[in-house]
Write a structure and sequence with these properties.
823 residues, alpha/beta, TIM Barrel, Methyltransferase, Methionine Synthase (B12-binding Domains), Chain A, domain 1, eight-stranded parallel barrel, 30 helices, 25 strands, 13% strand, amino-acid biosynthesis
Length: 823
């Protein structure tokens, strides 16, 4: 039988409904899988059982079944010293699914995350991640899969690496599914909107989410996601939150309830439906029966608009959208302090400029780190990491260095705009390469190897060549932006008219977005802000989509606000009415001072100039500034600085992280800044004997579980709160945890588990610890555990995230001290 839903590469003929399978891990556990080996070993040691599970899903109505290779990448298998088995395990996993699928279903090659944090927040480089996924993809394709599913990822950068790895060996369809925290963002802080915009631009066929929650809890996240993509959407929810009963992991959402909950997503664009943890063939059977005969409806993002994305915020642009403000200030040209810092590899001024522009109303940040004699590629990579700690805006990568641009793309968690390329054929090819491989936007200048045409027709001819190449490459025109070039009116009074006419023709003839370096128009003139403001107003009236300007220039911002209103980009005058009182006050104040170029903008989320330097260094995650500040302090002030500056600052960081206002990159940056400061202060503390830790905590991921990112975050935050942490790592045997507990005598033992199959190991570890230390406080955490499970094993539930865990431990520590004092 020919499977009618096999052509998944064609977006126009993509099926209205695809039913995937359900959980594999829980089914293997029921079939007798040992918890001390990776599930992928079952492909060779339990081949009949794996095939039977696949067959059960096909009989239940699955149109696509997923290989038992979720943890089959070399990076993941190396935790078990099994990386050499990558090809065997993945090929065999694909073959078993192929046998069960027959001519009734397609086979999706499952690829899960590596378990490592990607650079610059962790040790895993983009290239190493890409090569690992590439090797796994090649083996899966050799085994006969029909498509790939990249699932349960929490880092956009790792998804991008996985897609690149697959595309180097295969043209098969790719589905991507990410997972979210209870606060509605990914582990690395990406919002559903950012994830949707970024994945929508990658060379993949369908996108969505899985795991973490049951159908009900995922609704608000999925709704935001669906509004920001045009691609087919998928959802694979859990059968509830896992619980441990009688030594077995139980999920409490029944098949009919699961199916009814999933059916509600059809009105939000769900075309691909399946199950994750805890779902069984019975759940999939109920799902298939419930969705049979239903029709998907989806109101996607306007396909005529373009989009870029930062870690949390997205910017939709186009001639019908509000004017996009790109902050121009992160550019060393004419900025001696920034230039000198960049040469030294320091990011303090860069971070300040990013934060102040974000607060001033920028909608994206232009990032230029080109200084003579410096390694631009290395600086650009470091700057991208620094930006993530102070701004959640999209980034415009401003460089002519191809290596620097590509390296920045690999680090950023979002969809950047690359600034810029020319109409030279080689430049066009480089732009097409980056757009198609990484899913970015590209800016083109209307000039080529012969220079800048001095006529409208000359610039349009270059634009026509670029458009022709973009169309032939199959790239939507919404992925490119044209700069028709603003030239100085002081040297050519025809220049503004040429730019404005070119801009208008680009909009009308090609429907593309446009941008300008607006301030170029006034070069060489006095009171440049007056010329800039007038020219910007004229350009917006011609359809200008975005501009690189100083968002602290009140006159320019007022012109943008008024122009948006007058050109129909501010329906109902909502933005104007909301923002004009503040702008009017600033204009009046600036006028009385004779100054409209102030950049001293205060940010609500960024420490102001009155914040003490050492506190500011910790709050902004600036290690270099923290170290320099400590070095400049008097030795007698260092001890007081710990209590008065460092501890309050890191507590503030913790509070903001707990409130969801800061995310993992900022947390890591602040931790590194604190470590840098404490490395210099500690010798002085030792001289005074003031080095006692707040408490002692032993922490480990239990046997059979090789996931440790969450555990590492908890350890990091605990250390920053003054605790001495003994981290035993991941996949730690029960006897090792018991022996180390007896040796180190900690106040607490923290146990972590992500996989539902290792909940039993957590229970066994807790029971073993109770035998040797009946009074020991055991704290547990991880995606698969909850308060009920903690109570069932006489442990303390560590909450939903690192900050809640620290808060709980702080409270328990105070109780422990009171009890000891009373003895």
């Amino acid at each position: 039988m020919k499977i009618p839903w096999k052509n998944l590469n064609d977006k126009n003929s993509f099926p209205d409904l695809l039913i995937f399978d359900g959980g594999m891990g829980t089914m293997l556990q029921k079939a007798g899988l040992r918890t001390d080996i990776p599930p992928e070993i079952a492909n060779v040691e339990m081949a009949d059982e794996v095939t039977a599970i696949h067959s059960a899903y096909v009989k239940a109505g699955s149109m696509v079944i997923t290989t038992n290779t979720f943890g089959g990448s070399p990076l993941k298998l190396q935790a078990h010293d099994m990386a050499a088995m990558t090809e065997n395990l993945n090929e065999q996993g694909a073959r078993l699914a192929r046998i069960a699928a027959g001519d009734q279903a397609l086979v999706a090659g499952s690829m899960g995350p590596s378990g490592f944090l990607m650079a610059p927040f962790g040790p895993l480089s983009f290239n190493d991640a890409r090569d690992s996924f590439k090797r796994q993809a090649a083996a899966l394709q050799s085994g006969g899969v029909d498509l790939f599913i990249i699932e349960t990822f929490s880092d956009i950068a790792e998804v991008r690496a996985a897609v690149c790895g697959i595309r180097e060996v295969s043209g098969l369809p790719i589905f991507v599914s990410m997972t979210y925290t209870p606060k509605g963002h990914t582990l690395t802080g990406s919002s559903p909107e950012t994830v949707a915009i970024t994945l929508d631009a990658l060379p993949v066929q369908a996108i969505g989410m899985n795991c973490g929650f049951g159908p009900t809890e995922l609704m608000p996240i999925f709704r935001k996601f669906s509004e920001n993509t045009t691609k087919p959407l998928m959802l694979q929810a859990n059968a509830g939150i896992p619980k441990l009963r009688d030594g077995k992991t139980i999920f409490d959402i029944k098949p009919e309830e699961f199916a009814a909950g999933m059916a509600k997503y059809r009105s939000l664009g769900m075309r691909i439906a399946g199950g994750c943890c805890g779902t069984t063939p019975d759940h999939i059977r109920a799902l298939a029966e419930t969705l049979k005969g239903t029709t998907c409806s989806h109101i996607p993002r306007d396909p005529s608009t373009g989009a870029i994305a930062g870690t949390k915020r997205v910017t939709i642009f186009g001639s019908s959208r509000p004017f996009t403000i790109i902050g121009e200030r992160i550019n060393p040209t004419g900025k001696k302090k920034l230039t000198n810092e960049l040469k030294e590899g320091k990011m303090t001024t860069l971070k300040t400029l990013a934060a102040t522009q974000t607060e001033a109303g920028a909608m994206a940040l232009d990032l230029n780190v080109g200084v003579a004699g410096a390694d631009e590629a290395g600086l650009m990579a470091k700057a991208c990491g620094a930006l993530s700690g102070v701004s959640d805006l999209p980034v415009v990568i401003d460089t002519r260095n191809f290596q620097a641009a590509e390296g920045a793309i690999q680090i950023l968690r979002g969809k950047p705009l690359i600034n810029s390329f020319t109409g030279d054929p080689e430049e066009i090819e480089r732009a097409i390469y980056l757009i198609k491989k990484y899913g970015v936007c590209a800016m083109f200048l209307t000039l080529d190897e012969t220079g800048i045409p001095m006529t409208v027709d000359g610039r349009m001819a270059i634009a026509a060549r670029i458009i022709d190449a973009i169309d032939k490459a199959g790239i939507p025109r919404t992925e490119i932006v044209f700069d028709p070039l603003a030239m100085a009116v002081a040297s050519d009074y025809h220049a503004p008219a040429i730019t404005l006419e070119t801009l208008e023709r680009l909009k009308n003839e090609y429907g593309v977005a446009t941008t300008l370096g607006v301030s170029n128009i006034s070069f060489g003139l006095p009171e440049r802000k007056l010329v800039n403001s007038a020219f910007l107003t004229m350009a917006i009236s011609k359809g200008l989509s975005m501009g690189i300007i100083n968002p602290a220039d009140t006159l320019m911002m007022a012109s943008i606000l008024s122009s948006n209103l007058l050109t129909g980009r501010d329906p109902g005058a909502r933005n104007y009415v909301e923002k004009v009182p503040d702008l009017a006050g600033k204009l009046s104040s600036s006028s009385s001072r004779g100054n409209t170029d102030s950049t001293a903008v205060k940010s609500l989320d960024y420490p102001d100039r009155d914040t003490k330097p050492l506190m500011r260094a910790i709050l902004t995650g600036d290690r270099e500034f923290a170290v320099d500040t400590v070095k400049s302090m008097n030795p007698q002030d260092l001890i007081d600085a710990v209590d008065n500056d460092l501890i309050p600052a890191i507590q503030k960081v913790g509070d903001l992280y707990g409130e969801g206002k800061l995310f993992l990159p900022q947390l890591i940056g602040s931790a590194e800044a604190l470590k840098g400061a404490m490395a210099l202060i500690s010798p002085h503390l030792q001289k005074t004997g003031n080095t006692q830790a707040r408490g002692r905590i032993l922490i480990a991921t239990v046997k059979g579980d090789i996931h440790d990112i969450g555990k590492n975050i908890v350890a990091l935050v605990l250390e920053n709160h003054g605790y001495q942490v003994f981290d035993l790592g991941k996949d730690v045997p029960v006897e090792t945890i018991v022996d180390k507990t007896l040796e180190l005598n900690p106040d607490f033992v923290g146990l972590s588990a992500l996989m539902t199959t290792t909940m039993v190991a957590m229970q066994e570890t807790a029971e073993a610890l109770r035998k040797v230390r009946p009074d020991l406080r055991i704290v547990i955490g991880g995606a698969c555990v909850d308060r009920d499970f903690a109570n069932s094993i006489d442990a303390i539930y560590g909450g939903n995230d690192a900050m809640e865990a620290v808060s709980i431990i702080n409270g328990e520590m105070e109780t422990l001290k009171e009890n000891r004092a009373g003895l």
